[in-house]
Amino acid sequence: MSPTSAPVKIAVLGCGTVGTQVVRLLLEQASDLAARVGAPVELSGIYVRDTTTPRDAAVPVDALTSDAQALVDSSDVVVEVMGGIEPARTLILRALERGSAVVTANKALLAQGGAELYEAADAAGADLYYEAAVAGAIPIVRPVRESLAGDRVTRILGVVNGTTNYVLDEMTTKGLDYDAVVAEAQRLGYAEADPTADVGGHDAAAKAAILASLAFHQRVGIDDVYCEGITAVTADDIAAATETGRVIKLLAVAEQTDAGVSVRVHPTLVPRDHPLAGVRGAFNAVFVEAEAAGELMFYGQGAGGVPTASAVLGDIVSVARHKAGGGKGPRESNYARLEVLPMSAAMTRYAVRMSVPDRPGVLAAVATIFASHGVGIESVRQMPGKGHAGLILSTHRARESALSATVEDLRSTDAVNEVWSVLRIEGEL
Ligand SMILES: NC(=O)C1=CN([C@@H]2O[C@H](COP(=O)(O)OP(=O)(O)OC[C@H]3O[C@@H](n4cnc5c(N)ncnc54)[C@H](O)[C@@H]3O)[C@@H](O)[C@H]2O)C=CC1
Ligand SMILES: N[C@@H](CC=O)C(=O)O
Ligand code: NA
């Protein structure tokens, strides 16, 4: 490091699960970080609501401030780990407008108001980095944004929410109660401040929007993403999945086809021998298919304060290097003009689980309904009950609109007592 290098001043906004670990690592690793950056990396302050709240011993009390604007205005790099839309948005814009680099973990803000932030960064020639916003510690933003920038990404398939993966995994393997597992995910620091963002699928949808924007070089916002969470998944769904050699995962799917771009998040049946089925606990995994690269898989800890802080620190080093030695990170790539398709146009496979009367001719009647909508049946599994039979019909690839029309007819025929659930299938040939 040159003895004349001016320190790079880092402001941290928010001191919760992630912020605490960012501060700890910044201070503990200060000398290594300085050597990697080429200049001292200095914590200029930590913005909190209340400076008197007791905090982790790693957080220096004299660095706490409740004056966010003054802190932002006196820093070279602003690290936003508060979450939420405001005041995060205003403070990030303020930082970017004065040419400061911004590192954020805030996928909700990026997926909702990203355009405004990217434009402000571009106008000021400032860095905007957000590796922690997608799949926690896993390097996925940088690979898609930079390493694959010369390729054509066609599909991304991922487990990108640690909380829901943890919940589904605990319910599947230990038969634990849904509410108890969600509470544990909160205690472990996996869940969002409001865990309905996790279980409702919105957190995964925000990540899917960010990944799709990067992969397909155009803006895809949260409103473009079809989103279904795990709240309707029942113990019976999990048992039926096990029965058919599958597991249920909340998957984010982003695909580019000739017709356009399709981005969706929903509970999905994955065959037990598929690598995504083996993603346990709060771990995440992202498959990327690109024309030249072929299939790539990224795997690691998708949630939790310490792993997420690793991704934040990596971004801090990148932007601090630019501050110390010159240079700048990539601008937003937003030139493509593909149509973002509605969910009704999505193509996938389905498992329809239903109860039918235990009498002859029922199966033929059900098959006729599927055929009338052009939905091919790949397999039928029967599970006998008292006076009725449980059926699981797995389909060939079909259009979502055709499947919806099929289910509507199934619900109105007397050949079916009840349609219990409809789950999409990915990863099976
Ligand atoms: N916890 C995790 O595993 C991950 C979290 N993230 C993201 O990182 C960000 C932070 O998440 P966590 O640390 O888990 O949340 P958290 O709720 O533990 O921490 C946020 C902190 O910011 C503070 N804060 C919120 N609004 C504020 C305001 N207006 N003024 C001052 N302080 C304010 C809160 O009091 C809290 O201490 C969020 O955007 C989240 O989506 C991203 C990846 C993983
Ligand atoms: N709540 C999120 C945290 C990381 O993004 C999750 O559970 O994945
Ligand atoms: Na990441």
TrEMBL record:
Enzyme Commission number(s) from the entry: 1.1.1.3
Domain ACT: residue ranges: 351-427
Keyword Amino-acid biosynthesis: yes
InterPro entries registered for this protein in UniProt: ACT-like_dom_sf, ACT_dom, Asp/hSer_DH_NAD-bd, HDH, HDH_cat, HDH_CS, NAD(P)-bd_dom_sf
Origin: domain of life: Bacteria
Catalytic activities: L-homoserine + NAD(+) = L-aspartate 4-semialdehyde + NADH + H(+); L-homoserine + NADP(+) = L-aspartate 4-semialdehyde + NADPH + H(+)
Pathway: Amino-acid biosynthesis; L-threonine biosynthesis; L-threonine from L-aspartate: step 3/5; Amino-acid biosynthesis; L-methionine biosynthesis via de novo pathway; L-homoserine from L-aspartate: step 3/3
Any Pfam family: NAD_binding_3
Cofactor: a metal cation
The keyword Oxidoreductase appears for this protein: yes
Keywords: Amino-acid biosynthesis, Methionine biosynthesis, NADP, Oxidoreductase, Sodium, Threonine biosynthesis
Any one GO MF annotation of this record: homoserine dehydrogenase activity
The family this protein is said to belong to: Belongs to the homoserine dehydrogenase family.
Role of this protein: Catalyzes the conversion of L-aspartate-beta-semialdehyde (L-Asa) to L-homoserine (L-Hse), the third step in the biosynthesis of threonine and methionine from aspartate.
Name this protein carries in UniProt: Homoserine dehydrogenase
Organism, as annotated: Demequina muriae
